[in-house]
Each structure stands twice: as C-alpha cells, then as structure tokens.
Amino acid sequence: MSIQDKLGIILITYNRKNYLQRTFDQIFADNSPIKNFDITILDNKSTDGTSELIEQYGKNFPNIKHIIHNHNIGGNANIVRAFELASKEYIWVLCDDDVYDWSNWGEVEKAIYNNENIICLARYALHDSKKTEAIILQLTFVPANIIKTSLLNGSMIKSMYDNIFAFFPQLLPTIYAVNNKLKIYVVEKPIVHNGMDPRAIDSGYQRGTEKQYMSQRSLTMTWITGYANLCSMIQNKKLKHKTMLCGINFIHGNFSKFCKNMHALYFEKKNWFQIIDIISPLDTVSKLKLFFSLLRRHFIGACTENDSFVVRLLLFKIKFKIKKYIEGDYIVIDFNFMKAKKHIEKQNILLNIFHREFKIK
C-alpha cells in the first residue's frame, strides 16, 4: 500500500488568507512530498477571502476537497471534526499558519510503515525527547501529531468533543497512549515548526465567537488551565505532576511567576473552578505552595508608590509605607511610625519611634 493510501491529511482554517497562502506555497511546492496527497480543507465559514483562495487552488490541484461549514464552529471543534472524518490508516491534521521542512520526510514514511501509533513531527518544545512529559507538551501543537486512526474510536471522539472548551482535544490520543504504555515516536529532525505570530494575527481560541454566547468558564479559559484539564487524565501521579510542571515552566517561566499570574487571572476575579482545575494535576507540595501564594497575594499586597515601597494588609485595610533615601551623612529608612538613620561611615544607628529617639551602637 502506498503512503498516499495510508495517510490522510486534513487542514483546518478560518480567516487566514495570507497565512494560508504561505501554507499552500509549502504544501504544493515542487519539493513537497505531500503535494499529490488527498487533502481535505475544513473551512470555518471564512469571510476574508480564504474560501476563494481555496477554490482557486482547487482548480489546479484536484486532490483538494473543500468543505465549508454552515457556521464558524470554532478552532477546537474544527480539530475534532477533522479527527472524526479521518478515514485512512493515519491522520495528519494541519493548521493554516505553520512552517514546514520536508528534508526529513523519509523518516515519517518509515515510521508509518513501521506501524507506529503516534508520530511527533515537531521538536521546538522538546528539551529532552526521552522524557514523556516533554513529548506530551510538544504534542499540544496540532500539526505535530500523526495519529493511527485505530486509536480514534467512538469514546475517544466523544471525549475530544467534551474537551473542546479546554483547548487541547488533539491531546486525548496521546494521553491514552501514555496511560496504556504505547510508544510515541519522535522524529530526529522536525518536519513542522510553529509559524503563528500572536503579535501579528488574532491567535485567540475564541476567534469569531460573540462573548454573549460563551460561558464564564470558556471566557476565562487560558492555555495552562486547558492543559491542566488534560493533565488530570494522566493516571500515573508522578508523571501527571511532571507534565503539569513542564507546561508551567514552558508558558510562565517558573512556578513563582505562574502563581502570580494565576492570582491575577483567577483568584482576584473569583474564578474558583479554574483554580480547582489547575490544582488537580499538581502534587501535594506544589498544591500547598500555590494555595499559600494565592492567599499571601490576596491578603498582603505590595507595590511601589512614588518613591516608596508600600505593603498593605488587605484584610484589615492597614497600609505600611517604606521609603529609603539619603539625608546628609545618613542612610534613612522611613517606615510609617519608625525612622532608622544609619551613618554612611560609622556603625551607629539612630531610631525614632513614635517621636522618641534611641541610639544603637
């Protein structure tokens, strides 16, 4: 059986005419190994000329099948729809804004003929390709996945639809493979790179959706919250925690910044259900760290105000102002009711507490 008969390709798109043009330039280039494959394009009722561009290419490439949905069903629903339509032995879902390098395509074909369950085609998030948590993180990238369709039974597709709100329905086959100790093959040299530039385009998961039709949970969903929701399905507790930390470090840099961002995004706005989702995959120590960090940030506020550092005990509405400055030969720290003056050269300290002065040698 030829590779074209084994691998089905479905591309999802919505209002990305310029980026889709770049994608077509790569997919249908002379050196592209997939230019003659059957390619189905699921168009989310585009309104910017994307549909017309697809029709134009369809005249020159009869292997293109263009399906326009009656409505914009959303990017994540379009991903699931692509998996549901998969009819060949393997399925590769492409996005409309990425960058491809075909020089290592031979390895992909070899992996397919070797009957691999899941083939990972990207490596930009892989700090260590031997670590399962890093592979799971990388496979959040939709076109990084070539998946054997035997994994996509009715229960899998239903679970994908259930997880549309959490951003990563494409990760369900990977979670299943990990839980059942199935091998995930990672190519030595990446085929696809993330070409999305969030500064230049609308990269939100809610593109084209009116907010009045969205639940609070969908409106406040973020990358890390959706990722946590999927991580909670990993059966091995240690791996679940490692996978969550891997995502936290990739998106937020470190756990401290993650705690700070979670307080601003969810705790201050009382989106408790998102906090619960985030806490679920973490181990006990990390859960406590996050919990106490949120409490500390909620009840003790700190900021700069003019030239002063201000600490507020928010629960009791008490404000402390700390100011440091030079006064003659002294370094002065002014702390509300107390002022400490230390001589620049000498060691003695002058304290003024409630207007009473003390000298400390």
CATH topology of the largest domain, by name, is Spore Coat Polysaccharide Biosynthesis Protein SpsA, Chain A
Percent range for β-strand residues: 15-25%
Which range best describes the helical content: under 10%, 10-25%, 25-40%, 40-55%, 55-70% or over 70%?
A: 25-40%
Estimated radius of gyration: 27 Å
Q: What's the architecture of the largest domain in CATH terms?
A: Alpha-Beta Complex
By CATH reckoning, the class of the largest domain would read: Alpha Beta
Mean pLDDT: 86
CATH superfamily descriptor of the largest domain: Spore Coat Polysaccharide Biosynthesis Protein SpsA, Chain A
User: What structural class do you assign from the helix and strand content?
Assistant: alpha+beta
Separation of termini? Answer: 89 Å
Order of helices and strands: HEHEHEHEEHEHEHHEEHHHHHHEEEEEEE
If helices are DSSP runs of H or I spanning 4 or more residues, what is the number of helices? Answer: 14
Task: Tell me the count of domains.
Answer: 3
- State the low-pLDDT regions, or none: none
Count of DSSP strands: 16
Strand order in the largest sheet: 3-2-1-4-7-6-8
Report the major sheet.
7 strands, mixed
Q: Shape, please?
A: elongated
Describe this structure in words.
By secondary structure, the chain is α+β, with helices and mostly antiparallel strands. It folds into three domains: 3-193, Spore Coat Polysaccharide Biosynthesis Protein SpsA, Chain A, CATH 3.90.550.10; 213-298, no CATH class; 306-360. Helix content is 38%, strand content 22%. It has 14 helices and 16 strands. It has helices at residues 3-6, 17-27, 50-60, 75-85, 105-113, 132-138, 154-162, 172-179, 216-219, 223-231, 237-252, 255-267, 272-279, 284-299; strands at residues 7-13, 39-43, 64-68, 90-94, 99-100, 118-120, 145-148, 184-186, 192-193, 300-305, 308-313, 318-327, 330-335, 338-343, 349-353, 356-360. Helix 12 (255-267) crosses helix 14. The longest helix has 16 residues, at 237-252.
